[in-house]
Amino acid sequence: MKKVVEKTGLKHIALIMDGNRRWAHSKMLPSMMGHKKGVEALKKTVIAADKFGVKYITVYAFSTENWNRKKEEVDFLMNLLKDTIKNELLELHENNVVLRFIGDKSRFTGDLVEVLDEAEEKTKNNTGVNLQIAINYGARHEMVQTVQKIVSLGIKPEDITEELISKNLYTANIPDPDLLVRTGGEKRISNYLLWQIAYSEIFVTDLYWPDFGEDALKEAIEEFAKRQRRFGE
Q1: Cα–chain-centroid distance for residue 116?
Q2: What strands, in cross-sheet order, belong to the sheet with 56-63?
Q3: CA-CA-CA-CA torsion for 38, 43, 47, 52, nearest 10 degrees?
Q4: CA distance 153 to 149
Q5: Which of 1, 12, 22, 187 has a CB 3.0–4.6 Å from the CB of 56, allowing a cystine?
Q6: CATH topology for 2-138+177-226?
Q7: Contact, 88 vs 40, CB < 8 A?
């Protein structure tokens, strides 16, 4: 599989991890169990990405719209995120993973921000898979913040370029995704990386996210290898 990845030039896979709650309901389990199994699926996927030679993985963990869910579920997800990072950080670091959190952290509690910052600091010099976790992320919100940042710098309108915008997004210095994978069968983008996926190939699987792993990632990469990418030609 490494040869396939190298041959296709696949560097970055973005994932919409959909279907945790549906997976749980299909097994007559509480929604929270689906989210816990989703964490296990993410670990398997990151390990597989490293095995296959994929350098960047970006996952959609919590959107700006997810705050509209029931408070008990939101609280559970925030605690799950904090506990998962604390419990898995050492193993991720030992596996040479670079952790980065993209999104607006302003709504998070101080202790959660501290955990996220510590994880980024501890892993910043690693050289393995770059794992971006999008939390409190929304592409439109990202674009608004980017425009505000550029305006605040006093840059003239005629000096604003696509390159400048890219350098001021949350994903600055990260190559745009070559492949966008969505689990759960839904065929929509859901306000995710709208600027960055302008020319990404899209792969949708009916698998719910907790069932995703090495075999599913391999299938997505093999499908990507069959595509003839076009960039407006």
Answers
A1: 15
A2: 98-102, 130-137, 56-63, 12-16, 179-182, 201-204
A3: 20
A4: 6
A5: 12
A6: Undecaprenyl pyrophosphate synthetase (3.40.1180)
A7: no
Instruction: Map tokens 């929270």 to a residue.
Output: 32
Are the beta carbons of 109 and 36 closer than 8 angstroms?
A: no
85-101 per-residue burial string, b: 16 or more CB within 10 A, e: under 16? beebbeebbebebbbbb
In contact, 202 and 220? CB cutoff 8 Å: no
Which of 142, 135, 123, 148 minimizes the C-alpha distance to 59?
135
Residue-wise burial string across 4-18, b where 16 or more C-beta atoms lie within 10 A, e elsewhere = ebeebebbbbbbbbb
Look at residue 233 in the predicted model and tell me its pLDDT: 64
Q: Delimit the domains of the chain by residue range.
A: 2-138+177-226
Residues with catalytic function: 18, 66
Report pLDDT digits (tens) over 9-46. Answer: 999 999 999 999 999 999 999 999 999 999 999 999 99
